[in-house]
Amino acid sequence: MSIFVIDDHPLMREAVVMLLRRLRASTQVVELERLASVNRAIAEHGEPELVCLDLKLPDTNGVSGVREVRQMLPDTSLIVLSASPASDYEDLAREAGADAYVEKSAGAAQIAKVLREFLADEVEDENAPTIPEKLSKRQKQLLVMLDRGLSNRDIAEQLQISEHTVKVHLWRLFRRLNVKSRSQASHLARTAGLLDL
After folding, report:
1. How far is CA 110 from CA 19, 21, 76, 144, in A?
2. Does pLDDT of 132 surpass 70?
3. Are 81 and 53 in contact (CB under 8 A)?
4. In whole angstroms, how far apart are CA 9 and each of 36, 41, 57, 84?
5. Any residues with CB less than 8 A from the CB of 101 and at least 6 apart, and which?
6. How far does CA 166 lie from the centroid of its chain?
C-alpha cells in the first residue's frame, strides 16, 4: 500500500514524507505537486491507503481538491494539511469529505499524532475497528448514508436535524465502532454486513 502526499511546497512535502517514513518505514510514499497528477499516480502505484492533501494547490480552489480526491478515492482516508486556520476551513473540508484537518502550524508532534491515528489500525491491534453487538436505528441510518457518500449537510437535511447534531452522532458512532474516519466506518459496515441489519 502507498500514501500520497499532495503539496506544491517542497519543504512541507518533504517534512510530511519524513514523518510518514518515521512512523511506517515499509510504506511507499508518493509525492505529488498538484491534483492533476493523482490519476497517473493511482495507475502507477494503485489506490493509496491514505492521502495527505494541501488545500492550496496550483490547480485547486478552496475545498474543491477535497471533493475531487473523495470522488476519485471514496474509500481512502484523507487528511487535509493546510496553512489556513481550522476556523476558516475545517468544517468545509470535513463536509467535502476530509477525515481530518490539521494546521501546518500545529508542528511536527501534532501532525505525527494525527498521522499515527490513521496508520495505527495496521500497527496496533487494540486500535482495530470493533463490531458492536447492537447499533441504534439512528446509527444504522448514519452508516447507510456514509456508505452512500452523503455530506454532513445532506445527512442533516434527510434526517431533519442540525449539522452540529450530525457531527455529534458521527463522533459517537466512530467511538462505538472504534474507527477514525468516515471511510473506515463505511468499510467496516460493508465488510461486517452492518448495512444489511
Report:
1. 11, 16, 21, 32
2. no
3. yes
4. 16, 18, 9, 14
5. 79, 80, 82, 86, 89, 90, 93, 94
6. 17
Model pLDDT, residue 138: 86
- Say if residue 93's pLDDT is above 60: yes
For residue 128, what pLDDT is reported?
57
**Chain centre to alpha carbon of residue 14:** 20
- Domain ranges (residues) in the chain: 2-126, 129-196
| The three cell numbers locating residue 113 | 499524532
Query: What pTM was computed for the model?
Result: 0.63
Distance CA 28, CA 109 (A): 21
* Amino acid at the residue 59: D
Phi, psi of 101 (to 5 degrees): -135, 125
Query: What is the average pLDDT across 104-133?
Result: 72
**pLDDT mean across residues, the chain:** 87
Q: Which architecture characterizes domain 129-196 according to CATH?
A: Orthogonal Bundle (1.10)
**Which of helix, strand or coil describes residue 127?**
helix
- CATH architecture of the domain 2-126 equals 3-Layer(aba) Sandwich (3.40)
Helix (H) or strand (E) holding 29: strand 28-32
DSSP assigned state of 1:
-
Identify the DSSP state of 2.
Answer: E
Helix, coil or strand: residue 46 = coil
